[in-house]
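fyi for ur records
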Amino acid sequence: MIKKQDSFFVPLIITLSVIIPVAVALLMLFPDVLHIESDAFDFSSLPFFHAILNGFTAILLFTGFIWIKNKKTNAHKISMITVFVLSSIFLISYVTSKLTNSPVPFGGEGSVRYLYFFVLISHISLSIPVLPLALFSIYRGITGEIDKHKKIVKWTFPIWMYVAITGVMVYLFMAPYY
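which gave:
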């Protein structure tokens, strides 16, 4: 049976899960076309900000995991809502960064180059499904559908954690080239 709120939120989650990755892909594929010049603001420090957001996201995801394992549901909810807010800020900031900063190529050579591209490609690839997984996890948790929440979180948590940690790693690899 479809719940009344599902008729609004499920299509919204699916729509966002398609539009956002497509928009980010377009920003990555066409950086010269989809670029905004700004003399008023310096956006060059955004990659560092993104690493900070990703780091706090990983810490809070793990903290939320510990809270729920210890049956501290209110603390778990606060952690997860905070993670959602940080991830939303990240997404807005990331789009801003892609619109305003020119692409920076990775300059590493040898085995570190292969490691970097493995981390980068896996990070990008898994960031795509983490969006609907996270949105559905949060939605099912907020609506009290705990069985559905638990089923999806088994996938969401490790993928989201990997994306958050590798987000920091990508920054650390790229830091010398910014």
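Residues 150 and 170 are 30 Å apart (CA to CA). thats all i got for now
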